[in-house]
Write a structure and sequence with these properties.
The chain is an alpha+beta fold. 37% of the residues lie in helices and 26% in strands. The protein has a single domain, classed as Vaccinia Virus protein VP39 (Rossmann fold), CATH 3.40.50.150.
C-alpha cells in the first residue's frame, strides 16, 4: 500500500477498517487522482478482512466551498488548481466497483466559508446533512467488505 512517497507492507493479515481522506491526494493532477483513488479503493477492498469497514471522505462537488476553491485555482492557487470534487454517487460507484458493499453516505459542512454565517449555521449542520449531498463541502461514504 502506498502512502505518499512511502510504501506500507501488509504482512500476515488484513485490516478490520481503513480510512481514506482527500488530504492524501489533493496535490495530484486531476486525472491521476481519479486513477489513484480508484486504485487505493481496490487495494483497500483487497486487504480488508471480510466484514471490514472502509470509510472514504472527500470534497463535495455541489457546495459553495467547491466553487470558491475552483475559482481560487483559476487564479493561480496551486492547491486548488487541480482539485477534484466528488458526488456521493461517484464515491458510491467507486466502492461498489472495488467489490465493497455500499452502506451509507452523507454530507457535512453545509454552511459557507464566511465566518459570521458559519457560526450561525454550524449548529444546524447535522439537520442539514439529512437533506442529501447538495451544499455539503465534505462527503463521507461507508462501505464494507462482503463476509
Amino acid at each position: 500500500m502506498s502512502v505518499g512517497r512511502k510504501s506500507v507492507v501488509v504482512v500476515g493479515g488484513s485490516f478490520g477498517g481503513i480510512n481514506a481522506a482527500y488530504e492524501l491526494r489533493r496535490r495530484l493532477p486531476r486525472d491521476a487522482e481519479i486513477t489513484v483513488i480508484s486504485r487505493d479503493t481496490e487495494l483497500a477492498a483487497r486487504v480488508l478482512r471480510p466484514g471490514g469497514v472502509f470509510i472514504i471522505g472527500d470534497l463535495g462537488k455541489y457546495s459553495s466551498w467547491a466553487v470558491s476553491r475552483t475559482v481560487r485555482g483559476w487564479f493561480g492557487a496551486r492547491t486548488w488548481r487541480r482539485a477534484r470534487f466528488w458526488s456521493l454517487p461517484e464515491l458510491q460507484r467507486m466502492v461498489v466497483e472495488a467489490g465493497l458493499i455500499f452502506r451509507s453516505g452523507r454530507g457535512a459542512i453545509y454552511y459557507p466559508r464566511l465566518t459570521s454565517i458559519a457560526k450561525l449555521m454550524s449548529a444546524q449542520d447535522e439537520k442539514l446533512s439529512k437533506l442529501g449531498q447538495f451544499g455539503a463541502a465534505f462527503l463521507v461514504v461507508r462501505a464494507e467488505k462482503p463476509r
